[in-house]
Each structure stands twice: as structure tokens, then as C-alpha cells.
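Please annotate the following for my students:
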Amino acid sequence: MFPNIEERHPGLGEVFSGVFTSQVSPLSNLATPYPVVQCMLQMAGLRKKDVLYDLGSGDGRILITAVQQFGVKAVGVELNDSLVRWTISRVERLDFQDKIHILRTNFFTVDLREADVVTMYLGNEANHLLRPKFEKELRPGTRVVSHHFQVEDWEPLEVSTLLVPETGRNHTVYLYRMPQEARSSTVYRR
């Protein structure tokens, strides 16, 4: 259903075959740029008591930044074994094992009821398929922050667009908040 990295970017799969020893992420050209990470976390209004889940956590940059700057607990969900190993090695070097937990699994199978904030940079199809899961599992008040892709039929609470010099393009971030009322997708209808 979702193409793997090799299908989307021929030759990139070779990057994941070895052990990563440099500080440069193996996905730095596909990952959320750091200025966008900052914007996402600020829009989420993170508080120290929050638990953040990053779906498709890649190289862990959102998790690590959230822990370093906001002191939250964070859970990364990533299928790619090489990226999981990469992130775990960074977490260990930073001594954040008590703050960051990495799950090597499909984010559709993860229980999100503990999340106060969910971040993602996934795509229209994934966001569409995740919507019912969010509506079922996320507590009222939980914030959902998406880089570039909207959640279909949800009205964003806030939208921010920023020009990132390193990419030379605008990046849009969408903030949603689960309603305080009973969970119903009609709350988000446009």
C-alpha cells in the first residue's frame, strides 16, 4: 500500500545496508527539516508532562528535539530496521533511554491512547487511513501535527507555512486537536 524507500528513491536502499557511524542521518534529504521540526513542536504546545508519538519517526529528529527542548517523553514508531538502529544509537549516545522509546512496527498497530501529541510526515493516503484510528484512540485534547499533508475532512486549528532555505521551498504544518466532545468525525467536517 505504501511504497518503500527503494521504490520511491532507487539506490537509496543501499544507504541502509550498512552500519551508520556518521552524525548525518541516512534520510536527511527525505526527513522533516529542522526548522519545520521546531515549528511542529512549537505549534503542538508541548509541556514537560506530555507524551509525544512520532509516526514514521525516521532518524528520530522530532523525538530527540522534543526531549532536548521540552523535556517530554517520546515514542517513535518506525518500520525500517536500519533507521530504528540509527535512532537507538543516537538515543544511547545522548543518554535518553529513559525518555525515548522506539517501536519497530507498523504505526497502524500501535495503541495511541497514551499520546498527548502525535506528529507525522506521511502522505495523504496514510493520513486518510489513520483518521479513524485517531478518532477511536486519541483522547480529547490530544494534538495531531502533520507536516505537509492534511488529515482529510478535519479542520485544522492552525496552519503555518515557512520557507526553509536548505530545501528552497515552503513547508506547511497543520495542527489539529481532538475535540472535547464525544469522538465523532462529524466534528471535523468542513
The two ends are 27 Å apart (CA to CA). Residues 1-29, 185-190 have pLDDT under 50 and may be disordered. The chain has one domain: 28-182.
